[in-house]
Specification:
Elements: E1 19-24, E2 26-30, E3 34-40, E4 51-59, E5 65-70, E6 73-81, E7 83-88, E8 93-97, E9 101-105, E10 110-116, E11 126-134, E12 145-149, E13 156-160, E14 163-169, E15 171-172, E16 175-176, E17 186-193, E18 198-202, E19 208-215, E20 218-220, E21 224-226, E22 230-234, E23 240-244, E24 253-260, E25 268-270, E26 273-275, H1 278-289, H2 304-318
Antiparallel strand pairs: 1-22, 2-3, 3-4, 4-11, 5-10, 6-9, 6-11, 7-8, 7-10, 9-12, 13-14, 14-17, 15-16, 17-24, 18-23, 19-22, 19-24, 20-21, 20-23, 25-26
Length: 319
């Protein structure tokens, strides 16, 4: 492995990880009036252990995700612009602003709502990423929990004057920020790269990894140019990845690098329920419908933000 000088962006890996496949993130409807670009959790890439889903969401006022359940997985929500309110039946509620992250462990069961905060009348959408991560088998029945990570808490690496890396979790250019985003170890790096910028990023051995492009064009391993709204799935045949934006490009690139420790446990998923067997899924539906085994607090509960959202929607339709 080529040693990485934390003060140099020009080091390269030999061999780098090769590209296994590239999955376009096609825009689709989700929730109530929401638009998302999904690149994990599709027929092209059903799952990529430990990752179950990746959505790049765009929520205008009047769109959102009213009361809905989860069991057996964790969600990592990264708010890139705007703000999102959340509320669940445990009494937890709050707002994540631009640059903040929220980590939700559904465990044995949770019902919550995610509704964007109204934005100024400029037509701007609330934009972000939501990643679903499978829970290890021995934690499928753990108690639900929420944790927030605020933008001001995230360290930023500056490999050069053309690159900024928010080290949300992981290691990059001398910054070690391995935070527990989920029970399953996950790295998450958010990279902003101007034309002429380049990085060489190490990746944990044996972990699955990918790059998701949100703006601009990047070149991977000095060979493959990839446009925005693509998921670049990496093989495990190298020590890291080399990414650049050639000086000939005219746009700044914005992308995330993610890696997670895979497991060999079975995955049976039905919508927001992720279990180990079909029998577990049937039991989950019974528990959810009959308010038991983790869903007791659902009986008679409705989120306040969900009710306010429904009122706004009805009013907008009348107008």
């Amino acid at each position: 492995m080529t040693s990485l000088n934390p003060n140099s962006a020009a080091q390269i890996f030999h061999p780098p990880r090769s590209i296994a496949k590239i999955i376009p993130a096609i825009e689709q409807s989700e929730g109530d009036g929401a638009r998302v670009r999904r690149s994990i959790g599709t027929p092209q890439l059903r799952r990529f252990a430990p990752f179950l889903m990746l959505d790049h969401f765009f929520l205008t006022d009047g769109a959102g995700f009213p009361d809905h359940p989860h069991r057996g997985q964790e969600t990592i929500t990264y708010q890139i612009s705007g703000a999102t309110n959340h509320e669940d039946f445990t009494g937890s509620a709050g707002t994540i602003q631009a640059g903040d992250l929220q980590f939700m462990t559904a465990g044995r069961g949770i019902v919550h709502a995610e509704i964007p905060s109204p934005q100024p009348n400029d037509g701007a959408a609330n934009v972000g990423l939501q990643l679903w991560v499978d829970l290890p088998a021995h934690l499928k029945q753990c108690e639900p929990r929420y944790r927030d990570l605020r933008a001001k808490e995230i360290p930023i690496a500056h490999p050069s004057d053309k690159v900024d890396i928010k080290v949300i979790s992981g290691q990059s250019y001398g910054i070690d920020s391995v935070k527990d985003l989920a029970y399953t170890p996950v790295w998450l790096l958010h990279v902003n790269m101007r034309p002429g910028g380049e990085i060489s990023q190490p990746l944990p051995k044996g972990w699955n990894s990918f790059i998701y492009t949100m703006a601009g064009n990047i070149t991977v391993n000095n060979a493959r140019r990839v446009e925005k709204f693509n998921n670049i799935v990496l093989a495990q045949d190298g020590n890291g990845i080399n990414i650049s934006v050639p000086p000939t490009e005219t746009e700044t690139a914005d992308f995330v690098i993610l890696a997670g420790q895979p497991s060999d446990q079975p995955v049976v998923q039905y919508g927001p329920f992720v279990q180990l067997t079909e029998k577990d899924i049937y039991k989950t539906f019974d528990d959810y419908q009959n308010f038991k085994n983790g869903f007791e607090r659902l009986d008679g509960w409705e989120s306040k933000i969900g009710k306010e959202f429904a009122l706004r929607r009805r009013h907008s339709f009348r107008v």
